[in-house]
Design a protein that fits this description.
The complex is a heterodimer of chains A (364) and B (400).
Chain A: E1 9-18, E2 21-31, E3 36-40, H1 47-54, E4 63-72, E5 81-82, H2 88-94, E6 99-102, H3 116-127, H4 132-145, H5 151-154, H6 164-176, E7 182-186, H7 194-211, E8 214-219, H8 222-228, E9 231-236, E10 239-245, H9 246-251, H10 256-264, H11 278-282, E11 289-292, E12 296-299, E13 321-327, E14 330-335, H12 339-342, H13 358-363
Parallel strand pairs in A: 3-8, 3-9, 6-7, 7-8
Antiparallel strand pairs in A: 1-2, 1-4, 4-5, 9-10, 10-14, 11-12, 13-14
Helix pairs in contact in A: 3-4, 3-6, 4-6, 6-7
Chain B: H1 8-11, H2 34-39, H3 42-60, H4 62-66, H5 100-111, H6 117-126, H7 131-136, H8 141-147, H9 164-200, H10 202-217, H11 220-242, H12 248-283, H13 286-293, H14 298-335, H15 346-355, H16 365-392
Helix pairs in contact in B: 3-9, 3-16, 9-10, 9-12, 9-14, 9-15, 9-16, 10-12, 11-12, 12-14, 13-14, 14-15, 14-16, 15-16
Classes of the chains: A alpha/beta (364), B mainly alpha (400).
């Protein structure tokens, strides 16, 4: 676990607001090549806004980027560019070319009036200096890559002739046709049924491993996280409350909200008379004491609790709370009291990758 | 009861799988362009054919109808559409059965025509009758001979003996020119304006749409009248200053252009709103966001992703805008702002024809033919619009 390797994409202290309302407050995360970073959280927790902010896709106004940096290592390994301050022109080159994005709505993410081929060719020619015929060949081969057979004919089909799963494959093909290094997947499977969901996620994982793609996976499905993610960020109320490797997070959730989320997953093998809700698990303020090997005890940050005595409000975006590494590779947001206030301001840059089951994949 | 035409999809031994389309199967139309799809739509082609015929007939005949008859006497400077003599007024179409009143009208026209009177007199003399007796006959060879002297109008004549055919053709030319040009101008302005407002958003949108609101707030007739009067005043002013005397044809041209300008200046407002609304909703469509995420330039997104999706509403509006412009033209002509009387348009011909309908005696042809041509043209325009809309909508049938 080399924490020192340079991430492809690093977000530091990002704050985004919509007309005075902070949608994302001091979010920090880092994405390495060949890694899947999952951001989980409930609706409105700021996960999609974080992803959209990376490419500055949010319309301004109403959105404003208040604070932070988005460091992206551009191709040709120069100094990382801050996408938040890059010119529109540079940004357009990054969008699609180096950082691609796929969206939640495969049904409407394709323009209904153009054939699949036209749209793929357009995407390819936006970033690659190729002739039309060549672009069509690339389009056909990228359709093959995402598992659409008979690509030559499929290029001539229109979006409405495709099912949701196929459209999402087309979106992925389009996203990957320009060989980006980062894929932002904003709930790529939410609109799809479970079998298609598995296929799409496997496809993304395969491409990640083959191409060394960094994948940012936005989801609210912990099952997907357990299967796909290497590193997980849990967001609540615009703030990241916990960051850890997927194994660590599921084995030892430290923030009560995370354990609440995990407790909510219905268990197949246990008899439950009623489903657990988050409210039951996070109401108790006593549960918010995090015992840390590095800093003793700290109160985990929770917006619905009153701040404990001695909270230090700092100038940092997240103000009264800080994301602190409470165990190696395990970060939790705690109120800024005592040691938490003094601990140096660092950002989580976990490069953990779970072992890839390459052997078993080939065997099966 | 046995079905003589069994459904192959049901009866074939190997039923085709639903949704499985074999692109190599003959007879399946795939990947034809939008225009090709339009060329293959029967309704669209029918409409286009009718409009083409109408345009050809009306505009093609303009040099003739606007020209002056060269009858050797050399005295006339009245253009053909306006040439007629009152004695030949209100003659029904020549193929229509004439009743007693019509016959008397025709006979009187012959009697008061100095060129035809000697011939009629000769026919009566040969039959050994006085002219009055001969003209009172309603059958026999003498009647048929006299009948050949009657004025002949294919579509009848109006109150003062002008040929309705020539007037309808001239009027059609003027109405079509004004209708189609005004619709094109208003569609052009409306689309660009609305798309700019919707796409730019923010204060640009607010300013542009408030202007539209203000123009909408004014009664549009008032607006048109103001524009027409202003342009009229301006041209008059220019003419008196330059001291150049304008020919009647030049004045007519100025009238038509003024009318065109006035109608298109007010009729783009609706389309601007419609297009803005469409752009606003399209702008938030995921595929537009996807195009942005793909790194497409805003201009490119606008031209490639927004405009083609607007074709449906624009085409529908355009086909409706043509009849609307024609109707507005006739209304303004009625108010005396637009096409001024001796010059016909379908609108003022219909208005004239309407006044000829009465309980005592209806000169129906004066109303029927202008309205028929107008109606057929408008229907054909709607067919074309429908054909275009279908062709530009990839979800419509006509594809595999």
């Amino acid at each position: 676990m080399s924490e020192q390797s340079t991430p492809l994409l690093e977000v530091r202290d990002l704050s985004v607001s919509f007309g005075g309302v902070r949608a994302v407050d001091g979010a920090s995360w880092a994405l390495h090549a060949g890694q899947t970073l999952a951001i989980v959280g409930e609706s409105g927790s700021g996960k999609s806004v974080s992803a959209m902010s990376v490419l500055r896709l949010l319309p301004t106004p109403p959105a404003t980027y208040d604070h932070g940096e988005i460091r992206f290592a551009r191709q040709g390994d120069g100094a990382p560019t801050d996408l938040l301050r890059a010119s529109e022109r540079d940004l357009r080159r990054v969008r699609g070319g180096e950082i691609a994005m796929i969206f939640q709505e495969p049904m409407t993410s394709l323009n209904p009036v153009y054939s699949i081929g036209d749209q793929l060719v357009e995407a390819i020619r936006l970033h690659r200096d190729v002739r039309k015929g060549e672009a069509r060949d690339i389009a056909a081969s990228s359709l093959e890559t995402v598992g659409i057979s008979g690509a030559g004919d499929r290029l001539r089909a229109y979006p409405h002739e495709f099912s949701g799963g196929m459209r999402q494959r087309v979106m992925i093909a389009m996203a990957l046709a320009c060989r980006p290094r980062v894929l932002l997947a904003d709930e790529p499977t939410t609109a799809l049924d479970v079998t298609i969901q598995a296929q799409i996620l496997d496809l993304i994982a395969r491409l990640r491993d083959e191409e060394g793609l960094g994948v940012l996976l936005i989801t609210h499905d912990l099952g997907v996280v357990a299967e796909q993610a290497d590193v997980v960020c849990v967001m609540y109320g615009g703030r990241i409350v916990e960051v850890a490797s997927v194994t660590e997070l599921f084995a030892r959730p430290l923030h009560p909200y995370t354990s609440g989320l995990l407790a909510c997953i219905p268990k197949v093998h246990e008899r439950q008379t009623r489903l657990v809700t988050i409210g039951e698990t996070v109401a108790d303020s006593e549960a918010f004491v995090v015992r840390s090997d590095q800093m003793g005890e700290a109160r985990a940050w929770w917006p619905r609790h009153e701040a404990p005595d001695g909270v230090v409000v700092s100038d940092a975006p997240a103000g009264d709370s800080a994301l602190v590494e409470v165990a190696p590779g395990h970060w939790v947001r705690v109120w800024r009291t005592g040691e938490a206030a003094e601990s140096e301001h660092r950002f989580p840059r976990l490069s953990f990758r779970r072992p890839r089951a390459t052997g078993s994949r080939e065997a099966s | 009861m046995s079905d003589p035409h069994p459904n192959p999809a049901i009866d074939s031994p190997e039923p085709a799988q639903a949704g499985a389309v074999d692109p190599n199967e003959p007879g399946i139309v795939r990947d034809i362009s939008r225009w090709q799809r339009f060329w293959r739509s029967p309704a669209g082609m029918l409409g286009l054919g009718v409009i083409a015929a109408m345009v050809l007939a009306c505009l093609g005949s303009l040099p003739y109808t606007l020209g002056t008859p060269d009858d050797g006497t050399g005295g006339s400077d009245v253009p053909r559409y306006n040439a007629g003599v009152p004695r030949e007024g209100r003659i029904p179409p020549l193929w229509w059965g004439h009743d007693e009143t019509d016959i008397r009208r025709c006979m009187n026209a012959v009697r008061s025509d100095p060129e035809k009177l000697p011939e009629a007199q000769r026919i009566a003399d040969e039959a050994g009758l006085t002219l009055d007796e001969a003209m009172a006959l309603r059958e026999g060879p003498v009647y048929r001979q006299l009948r050949s002297l009657w004025p002949r109008f294919l579509l009848g004549s109006d109150q003062i003996g002008r040929s309705l055919l020539l007037r309808v053709l001239t009027g059609g030319g003027i109405s079509l020119v004004i209708g189609i040009s005004a619709a094109m101008i208003s569609v052009g302005i409306g689309t660009l304006y609305g798309a700019l407002a919707g796409y730019a958003g923010g204060w640009v949108d607010s300013v542009l749409m408030r202007i539209v609101d203000v123009l909408y707030g004014l009664p549009y007739i008032l607006l048109v009248v103001l524009i027409a009067v202003a342009v009229d005043g301006y041209t008059e002013d220019r003419i008196t200053r330059s001291g150049v005397e304008l020919s009647a044809a030049a004045r007519t041209r100025i009238d038509v252009i003024t009318l065109l300008f006035a109608i298109s200046a007010v009729s783009w407002l609706t389309l601007a709103r419609v297009v803005r609304g469409q752009v606003l909703s399209l702008k938030n469509q995921p595929f537009v966001e996807a195009a942005r995420a793909m790194g497409a330039h805003p201009v490119r997104i606008f031209a490639r992703h927004l405009l083609p999706n607007l074709v449906g509403p624009i085409v529908v509006y355009a086909t409706l805008a043509v009849p609307q412009a024609i109707l507005q033209e006739s209304f303004l002509s009625f108010l005396g702002i637009g096409i001024k009387p001796p010059l016909p348009s379908w609108g003022n011909l219909a208005a004239d024809g309407l006044s000829e309908l009465n309980g005592y005696r209806s000169n129906w042809w004066l109303l029927l033919f202008p309205c028929l041509l107008l109606g057929v043209t408008l229907l054909a325009l709607n067919f074309v619009g429908e054909g275009l809309r279908e062709a530009f909508d990839p979800k419509s049938k006509g594809r595999a």
